[in-house]
Amino acid sequence: MKNTKVFPANPIRIQDNTLRDGHQSIYATRMKTEDMIPIAEKMDQCGFWAMEVWGGATFDTMHRFLGEDPWSRPRILKKYVKKTPFTMLLRGQNLVGYRHYADDVVRAFVDKSCEIGIDIFRCFDALNDFRNIETCVERIKANGKHVEGAVCYSLTESHLGGEIYTLDFYVAKAKELESMGADTICIKDMAGLLSPYDAYDLFTALKKEVKVPLHLHTHYTSGMGSMTYLKAIEAGVDIIDTCLAPYALRTSMPALEPIVAALKGSERDSGIDLYSLLEMSKHLEQIAPKYEHLLANQKLSIIDSEVLAHQIPGGMISNLVSQLKEMNALHRMSEIHQEIVQTRKDMGYPPLVTPSSQIIGSQAVLNVLFGRYVRISNQLKDLVLGLYGKTPVPIDKELSAKILKNYKRGQEPITCRPADLLAPEIEDAKKTIGDLAHTDEDLLAWIMFPQTMEKYLQEKYRDGATQSAS
Ligand code: CO
Q: How far apart are the CA of 219 and the centre of ligand 1, in A?
């Protein structure tokens, strides 16, 4: 890229993910709001396209582990961040929880999120079945907010191509999101699988076919992240996600500072002032001892070469290790790696992301230990039944019949949008929770996390307080 003296016409835009995915990736989502406040105003001055501050696992950990009202963070940060839009990660019909919720819950959640200060919603579905984000998208639009449609990046082979995950696949998915009204489109590479040259081809193709701005989200997990960003930037990607250096790298995102420095003076210069970033990083270093115990540092390597070898994300491997230890079968790990590939193929090649990664991983373990599909988890049956949505490739009919034999929830896979089968939840929930919910926020949070929110609310209102202090 050639150098330009004037400010570039096409600067790379930066979304800062330090306050959500950054600490979710390296500190198990445990960063406290009080530790964000000291740098919030400075972050607002950086010229970020957006700051990701909420969604993903934050809602869960805030009330479960941090004693914070799960709705409070965007509201608090809005007092300090006046001009930079806030973005959140939304798991489609799963919202910020772990099951599909009925449409009335989804609508109420989106309305409330807009009210507390979320401006941009990154919506995705683990199976890339966009029927599962329809209700969110319609509601975000109704609130006049920004829809970012995300495609989960996955592979069938070591690189782009093969049976399913081809250039054409991603272009078609992006077009589908554009036709649903997405204001920006994100390629969400949660496991850091996207290689630099594939990124170049992918964004070159997407730029030709899609009109709305393109956003790339990758993780540093495999070690390719910064190279991938550079090639995507050369191919014309509009926005990338980074974190401040202390919360970057490892399983988190590429660091912002080297990208700012690398592009300085080029036609994609970010325009971000490197010196102002150093001060914020100093704060993150100062508070680091508080969070040190949460770092996964039992390995010397900060990258996960396993991902490069077999595309199985690190988080999934650590879950498997603990599952195998319990079953006294740790020595069978390499068989399980192979079985994961087979199980995923049998299940129609879902991307390996929550919840499909857990479903495929634990079934692969059962297959190795007890024989293929001799013991079958209920989650796998639900997947085959279509309750999570449509798999990228249809599941073999014979296998599907074998897995669903005598299953109490049904034997014939559904073809409708899964949420069409769900009855409204809010009115019933009101009756069940009774006086414990003082506000509609309490009620919604309780619907998503009944056990842990019950505890949280009892604690919150223990001294006879009547209103939420948020
Ligand atoms: Co991520």
A: 6
In the block, residue with structure tokens 């039944």:
385
Length of the chain as a residue count:
470
Q: How confident is the model at residue 7 (pLDDT cuts 50, 70, 90)?
A: low
pLDDT at residue 469 above 50? no
pLDDT tens by residue, 184-229:
999 999 989 999 999 999 999 999 999 999 999 999 999 999 999 9
Domains present along the chain, CATH in parentheses = 13-291 (3.20.20.70), 312-420 (1.10.472.90), 425-460 (no CATH)
pLDDT at residue 295 is higher than 60:
yes
Ligand 1 centre and the CA of 395: distance in Å? 28
Span from the CA of 218 to the centroid of ligand 1 (angstroms): 7
What is the model's pLDDT at position 227?
98
Which helix (H) or strand (E) is 16 found in, with range?
Answer: strand 13-16
Distances in Å between the Cα of 421 and the Cα atoms of 102, 103, 219, 354, 415 are: 8, 10, 35, 22, 11
Bridge partners (DSSP) of residue 297 are: none
Q: Parallel, antiparallel, or unpaired for β 50-55 and 13-16? A: parallel
For CA atoms 453, 455, 456, 459, give the dihedral sign. Answer: positive
Q: Which residues, in sequence order, are CB contacts of 79 under 8 Å at separation 6+?
A: none
Contact partners, residue 337, CB within 8 Å, separation at least 6? 310, 312
Task: Using a CB cutoff of 5 Å, list residues around ligand 1, an ion.
Answer: 21, 190
Residue 96 Cα to ligand 1 middle (Å): 14
Q: Can you give the pTM of this predicted structure?
A: 0.94
